[in-house]
Structures are given as C-alpha cells and as structure tokens.
Design a protein that fits this description.
Layout: E1 3-16, E2 20-27, E3 31-37, E4 56-62, E5 68-77, H1 80-84, H2 86-102, H3 110-124, H4 130-144, E6 165-167, E7 172-174, H5 188-198, H6 205-208, H7 212-230
Helix pairs in contact: 2-3, 2-4, 3-4, 4-5, 4-7, 5-7
The structure holds zinc ion (ZN).
Length: about 240
C-alpha cells in the first residue's frame, strides 16, 4: 500500500458500519477520491469535525484496493459559515453535487478545485442573492467541464453577435439563420446577466442580478443548460431559495 498526500475539498460523506465514514473528495492531483476514515464516529476521534462537506483539507492517505484510507487530516478552511446557514448550505450542496458529477477519478483537477474553493469563498461573503453565486458557479463549472456556453457568437455557425435565442443543446446563442423557427428570444437584460454569470469575477453579481425578471430567466436557462449537460437535474437544487 502506498502512502500519499493530497489537498482537497470534501464533497460528501456517508456512514460505513458502526464507527467509520466514507468520504468523497475532490483533490488537485488525483481528481475524485473515495476514502474511508476509520473510527471517525467514535467520541474523541482525532479527526473531529475536520471531514465535513465543504471542508478544504490537507490529507495523508494509503491507497487501498477499493477505497483509500485517510490516516491524517488537517483543516485548511472549514467553510463552517456555509454549513451554518440554510440558503448558503443549499447553494454549497448544489456546488459539490455538480462538482461530484463532472469530476473524474485519477485525473488532475486543479481548475475544478480552484473553482469550487472560489465558489465556496464567494458564499462566505454573505451575498444578498446566494442563488446568483450558485448560478455563476454552475456556468463556470460547465466551462471547466468542456461545455463553455457561447454567448458572443452563434453556437452553430460562429456568426459573431449577441444573438437572442439560446439553444441549450447547441451550447449557446443562435443566429436567426440557425435558430429553430418559432424560438422565443431572451430579454437583452437576461443575456447580459448570463454574460456576467459566465465571466470571471465574483464581486458585483448582486448588482448585475438586481432585476428579478432577468434573474429568473437566467436561472431557468442555467437550470436547463446544466441539466442537459449533466444528464439529469441536481438533487440539492430544489432546496435553494430563489
Ligand atoms: Zn448561426
């Protein structure tokens, strides 16, 4: 059995037997890792509350035949504030669920780890509209996973322009020639908001999403876009207050 170190974010945990727990992590070097923590549910376990969902941890593990075994865990950031608030926790749960869906095992996941940490950090800033931070995260996750939404040129033929019909399967906006007949165009403000959500910054999202109609239209589109590319809806989505 080989010993290795990794830093990663806890995606989910579940009970195993009387005292153990299985932890799914997203690590920088090995992508998704499934590992056992022995005795973690015994009182006075040396792992304490370090391996809770959202926690960013530094780990030492043994690689096992089926599951790896966590032998040491140091907390880097607990993100306890995200767990403590219902809306933030619902958004964080949707983030880790979506990450769990796109992450692969045995594949470096630097961009994915950085995006997840940035998303969780943005939630700890207590945004007025946590669901908007979540929508931004999900569009950026789609980009990292290879489904960057085309917003400045037709997704089918490449004709530049902020076309106003969005084709979920095509992966972005569609020019009048490529849009299916009878498609309903999006509001200009909803399209502008999608651009902000898909962009790079986390500040100013509350302002960008101030208009409820644009916010709802953009949220509905993010929902269809992600559901299409992930194959089925995210379960934690329904808990997110809108
Ligand atoms: Zn076109």
């Amino acid at each position: 059995m080989a010993l290795y170190r990794e830093q990663g974010v806890v995606l989910r945990t579940y009970k195993l037997g009387e005292t153990d727990r299985i932890v799914h992590l997203l690590t920088q070097g090995r992508g998704k890792v499934r590992a056992v923590v022995k005795g973690v549910r015994r009182p006075g376990s040396r792992f304490g509350g370090r391996l809770e969902p959202f926690s960013h941890v530094d780990l030492q593990l043994y690689s096992g035949r089926n599951l790896d075994i966590i032998t040491q865990a140091e907390l880097i950031t607990s993100f306890a504030a995200v767990r403590a608030d219902f809306a933030l926790s619902a958004c964080g749960s949707t983030m880790v669920e979506a990450t769990d869906r796109v992450a692969q095992e045995d594949e470096r996941a630097n961009s994915l780890v950085l995006l997840l940490l940035a998303g969780l950090r943005a939630l700890t800033q207590r945004p007025a509209l946590p669901s908007v931070v979540l929508d931004a995260f999900l569009l950026r996750l789609a980009s990292v996973a290879g489904y960057h939404p085309y917003l400045d040129a037709c997704a089918t033929c490449g004709t530049p322009g902020r076309h106003r019909v969005f084709g979920v399967a095509a992966g972005g906006v569609l020019c009048p020639a490529c849009a299916p007949p009878g498609s309903r165009p999006l509001d200009v403000s909803a399209l502008a908001l999608l651009g902000e959500l898909a962009g790079a910054g986390w500040d100013g999202l509350d302002d960008a999403a101030a208009e409820p109609r644009a916010r709802r239209a953009a949220a509905a589109l993010v929902h269809s876009f992600l559901t299409y590319h992930l194959g089925r809806p995210l379960r934690a989505w329904e808990l997110v207050p809108r």
